[in-house]
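Annotators were shown the component list below and the corresponding predicted structure, then asked to write short factual statements about the assembly.
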Amino acid sequence: MQNPTAAMLVIGDEILSGRTRDANMHHLAKALTDHGIRLAEVRIVPDEHARIVEAARALSGAYDHVFTSGGIGPTHDDITADAIAEALGVPLGIREDARAILQAHYDRQGQELNAARLRMARIPEGAALIDNPVSAAPGFSAGNVHVMAGVPSIFEAMLAGLLPRLTGGAPVLSQSLRVVRGEGDIASALGDLAAANPEVSIGSYPFFRDGVHGSNIVVRSQDGTAVDRVMGELVRMFPEAG
Amino acid sequence: MQNPTAAMLVIGDEILSGRTRDANMHHLAKALTDHGIRLAEVRIVPDEHARIVEAARALSGAYDHVFTSGGIGPTHDDITADAIAEALGVPLGIREDARAILQAHYDRQGQELNAARLRMARIPEGAALIDNPVSAAPGFSAGNVHVMAGVPSIFEAMLAGLLPRLTGGAPVLSQSLRVVRGEGDIASALGDLAAANPEVSIGSYPFFRDGVHGSNIVVRSQDGTAVDRVMGELVRMFPEAG
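Structure shown to annotators:
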């Protein structure tokens, strides 16, 4: 059985400029793998309406799920909700349940739900809210697009609430072997092993550290028995590995 | 004057699975910003021929430069050179100058230039080699696509050799102000400031740390005088910032 597929869309001027380092992608990748959803593409685009619309449409059509991060706050450069609504062809307006969540939050804080903050209650028609236990302003799932905050602590909290609602497949299992030999020494044997075992995927990831060339060989499959068997063959092929 | 634009294409099964965290993107983003090239999109795709071809074609047509990382080693899963050659419609074959570089390297190391390692001398016709001072096997620039290794130390060394060959524009200058107020409190004033100063881009990046909500406000422009002026206005608007 094929696992559901997903893409991530990062709305990220600050990442493209090199000002900040994205943290959400790595978190999402691990969480989806554990949940049995295959992350098959990531795109990072600038905070520009047309670019977000175009990427959201392309990814929403190509994958089972799209996860976005960034651009859902109260400021002028927070334009993700507008772009996702346009990409899906649905209207965007203040949602009363979202407004109530914000009102209660700012009442508790003794702050005003001003016009800027009220922008965060604008939700595409028909969307389901995603709970934000950190700072109240909700994310949303519109169609197959799940819109979440860019601040890592909020992104992670939203994802933790969202993931159990999504159907995953069998998790992809992996094991790895660290071989202190250059890839060129092991490539031929590895290629033969990969060809003989199409039920697993075998990846080789070179490293170069402290003057030492080596390779991490990773065997992946939904079939744990097959992973065990191929790992056994690898250990016999490279008995010096550890 | 518009700066040249660029995209990055990461060939990255191991990043999509969450096994490793990409490091090259952040390095490239900073280096391009310093060089006056605007990184306008990043895509991460799996180690699948058709997906690399499709993404390379789309990005090569849309931007002045495409920088790739990953998939140029000697193993069966190193398929980037094949995919880039197909994307650009040029033949791929063993290049004698690349073979000579590899032969000299492995002679020095007392290792054999075997069939797997010789794969790394396969270069698309007409490409310029990119020097690899770390482990010899060269990258290449084919058309506007610059193909580099995924191992961060090698990626960075290749980029350092490549960038001076590429024409940059005026670097985008930025200054930032850290305001310990929630975005909702400053959004309205910030929106007005952005509308009144179209020659700069003003971004607001919320943070939430140790129970404190705040915003980093970033002003960017190729015009340093305009950045200074708008920063002055920001400091007057938020005198408590630091």
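Statements collected:
1. Residues 49-62 of chain A form the longest helix (14 residues).
2. The mean pLDDT of chain A is 93.
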